[in-house]
Amino acid sequence: MNFPITRLRRMRRNATLRRMVRETTVSVDDLIMPLFVRPGSGIKNEIKSMPGNFQWSPDTLEEEARELEGLGVPAIILFGIPDHKDAVGSQAYAADAVVCRTIERVKKACPSLCVITDVCLCEYTDHGHCGFVANNRDGNPDVDNDRTLELLVKESLAHARAGADMVAPSDMMDGRISEIRVALDDEGFDDLPIMAYSAKFASAFYGPFRDAAESPPQFGDRSSYQMDPANLHEAMREIELDVEEGADIVMVKPALPYLDVIRWAADTYDLPIAAYNVSGEFSMLKAAAMNGWIDEKRAAMESLLSIKRAGAKLILTYWAKDMAKWLA
Ligand code: PBG
């Protein structure tokens, strides 16, 4: 007796048919490349914890943006690293802020590249927290939600005036989406979309990023404003608030440890869902690949495919450039 081939296996035996019945694909159009920029010129500093990623200056970043555009990567998201940090993160919203100068250059050089900006204060504050810090009722320093909103509004407006195509608040303060929306509308930027980092968890997987952006908190951690990794229902409430406040795209972050959150969000909301395949997710595989323990290309493609399968339409990933080459 022959071993029986089931109907499901029969479908897998033909490579063309396998391709035809594939339920999920990753396209270069799904990808957003994160880039770090600092003041200066001619800078291309490799980030130790994220091999193949660099801190750029506006001129070298412009070259990189041209290359990404040429490869078909549709979008970048910019993170600024200022020369000077202070308690209120003034370099986040100064007219000559490094992110603003970079937006202007990139938009001129690559008009079809979608330039998104991360709106947050942690890269710009000397204490490394995502907002304005004051003593709370117990006399302990903590992020003051409402005073932070003013600063986030200023930062969003600075990015909009410089020509950003979309702003992406990642601070996790309550009420920031509606404040930013109203301020943008008042200045005539009613056509500028907001991608909200809605369900952002207080995660160990941001470790390599804090090295890249030189932004680790100098005291405490971010668990008073970022989410507890244990909470799925709360993630849905966070997303719901951002949707009500006017977010155009909602994001789940990190991606791989939170595929259940992505799936539930995709089933619930009729908006594009973005997912951030964060620095730790990238660096783990990169380190294993550099040791010869894992096939980087296969593992990266499988990761991004899984994020799409879970329901994300857009993926922020440090593999965006490599993927554009791999998919070409
Ligand atoms: C800023 C911000 C962070 C990341 C994106 N925006 C760091 C943090 O919240 O600590 C992390 C991205 C990554 O790890 O790749 N708040």
Tag the structure with descriptive keywords.
328 residues; alpha/beta; TIM Barrel; ten-stranded mixed beta sheet; two-stranded antiparallel ribbon; 12 strands; 40% helix; 17% strand; globular; binds ligand PBG
- CATH class label: Alpha Beta
Q: Given the C-alpha coordinates, what overall shape results?
A: globular
CATH topology name, in short, is TIM Barrel
Overall pLDDT level: 95
> In the residues, how many domains can be counted?
1
CATH architecture: Alpha-Beta Barrel
**What percent of the residues sit in helical stretches (DSSP H or I)?**
25-40%
Order of helices and strands: HHEEEHEHEEEHEHEHHEHEHHEH
Counted by DSSP, the helix tally is: 12
- How would you sum up the major sheet? 10 strands, mixed
How many β-strand runs? 12
Q: What ligands does this structure carry?
A: ligand PBG
Strand fraction: 15-25%
Rg over C-alpha atoms, rounded to the nearest angstrom: 20 Å
- What is the CATH superfamily label? Aldolase class I
For the record, give the distance between the C-alpha atoms at the N and C termini, rounded to a whole number: 45 Å
> Can you tell me the residue ranges where pLDDT is under 50 for at least 5 consecutive residues?
none
Structural class: alpha/beta
Walk me through what this model shows:
This protein has 328 residues and is of the alpha/beta class. The protein has one domain (24-327): Aldolase class I (TIM Barrel, Alpha-Beta Barrel). It contains twelve helices and twelve strands. The chain has helices spanning 7-12, 15-20, 58-71, 98-109, 145-162, 176-186, 207-212, 233-245, 259-268, 279-290, 296-309, 320-327, and strands at residues 31-37, 44-46, 54-56, 75-80, 114-119, 133-135, 141-143, 166-169, 195-200, 249-253, 273-277, 314-317. Strands 1, 2, 3, 4, 5, 8, 9, 10, 11 and 12 form a ten-stranded mixed sheet that branches. A two-stranded antiparallel ribbon has the order 6-7. Strand 4, helix 4 and strand 5 form a beta-alpha-beta unit. Helix 3 (58-71) packs across helix 4 (98-109), helix 4 runs parallel beside helix 5 and helix 5 runs parallel beside helix 6. The longest helix has 18 residues, at 145-162. The mean pLDDT is 95.
